[in-house]
Write a structure and sequence with these properties.
- This protein is 55% helix and 0% strand.
- By secondary structure, it is an all-alpha fold.
- The protein has a domain of 147 residues: Biosynthetic peptidoglycan transglycosylase-like (Penicillin binding protein transpeptidase fold, Orthogonal Bundle), CATH 1.10.3810.10.
- Helix 2 crosses helix 7 and helix 11 packs antiparallel against helix 12.
- The longest helix is centred in the N-terminal third of the chain and has 42 residues.
- The protein is globular, with a radius of gyration of 39 Å.
């Protein structure tokens, strides 16, 4: 037995090559940072390959983000279209709008129909209250978007009611408020745009608007404040009257002259912004004195044509 043992011990051996296989001749993979197999290192690839791979990754993420954004926008547009369709179904017809305007004027002792809306007042009103009036379909999507984002951000009401919606409020939802009422006014505004030409919308608006100091309708306000018919209004007078419709009691020029002048200045600025007046003209017009009559509407007389 001993001889067998001696022969095994003296037999030639072929030891394993030094490396990670034995555990005592070098680190195993993962035991040392930067380890690489013996011999050639991992191929580094062509110059700039890493930057190209990273660029492709960023481009892919950007494309996915754009695709998701497009889907969200399309979904919102579809929801908006469905909501508008629902509003048009549930809101009443506006075929009786002129009759409602006439009833309001009769209630407040104003003439119906009133005098034609002059160009200066129309420009002042549109520039201040709804500068997209002649191009919008009864609804201003930009103003509504601004209103929604303002509410989400907690900012004060930025406004967004078109002249159509304001007219709908006066004719169909007076004294009511809330989101549901505003939504109804949007639907009614679209219907008003579809049913009546622009000039008739302005005419009905001017006939039923309240201008403060117990003056209902443009004719009564023009004669009561300035003693002239609407056709004879100067730019400063037209600007002041257009500014009153937003807050007719607070800006009543008889009771609150400074506030009325501030609104007049704002309207003149809007006329500059919309291209009806130059800055120099607006400044010159604002410096003109305003002579308030403050009498009853019947005191109005038509000046002779020069």
């Amino acid at each position: 037995m001993a001889g067998h043992g001696s022969s095994w011990d003296s037999a030639p051996t072929s030891p394993l090559p030094a490396g990670p296989y034995l555990g005592d001749t070098g680190p195993a993979p993962g035991d040392q940072a930067g380890w690489a197999p013996p011999g050639d290192q991992w191929p580094a690839g062509p110059p700039g390959a890493g930057a190209r791979y990273r660029g492709r990754g960023r481009a892919g993420r950007r494309h996915r983000w754009l695709a998701r954004t497009a889907v969200v926008i399309l979904g919102l547009i579809l929801l908006g279209a469905l909501a508008l369709g629902g509003l048009l179904l549930v809101t009443p017809s506006v075929g009786d709008a002129p009759a409602r305007a006439q009833a309001l004027d009769r209630q407040y002792g104003a003439a119906y129909p009133g005098p034609a809306v002059p160009a200066r007042f129309a420009a002042s009103l549109v520039s201040t209250e709804d500068h997209r009036f002649y191009s919008e379909p009864g609804i201003d999507v930009f103003a509504i978007g601004r209103l929604i984002t303002g509410r989400i951000a907690g900012r004060p009401d930025q406004g967004g009611a078109t002249l159509y919606q304001q007219l709908a409020k006066m004719l169909y939802t007076p004294g009511r408020s809330g989101i549901a009422t505003q939504a109804e006014q949007v639907g009614l505004g679209i219907k008003l745009d579809l049913a009546y030409p622009k000039w008739q919308i302005l005419q009905m608006y001017a006939d039923v608007a309240y201008f403060g100091h117990n003056y209902y309708g443009l004719g009564a306000a023009s004669c009561g404040y300035f003693g002239v018919t609407p056709a004879r209004l100067s730019w400063p007078e037209a600007a002041m009257l257009a500014g009153l419709v937003q807050a007719p009691t607070a800006d009543d020029p008889i009771a609150h002259f400074a506030a009325a002048r501030a609104r007049e200045s704002h309207v003149l600025g809007r006329l500059v912004a919309t291209g009806h007046l130059s800055q120099a003209q607006a400044v010159s017009l604002y410096r003109q004195p305003l002579e308030l009559v403050g009498g009853p509407p019947r005191a109005c007389t038509v000046p002779s044509t020069p």
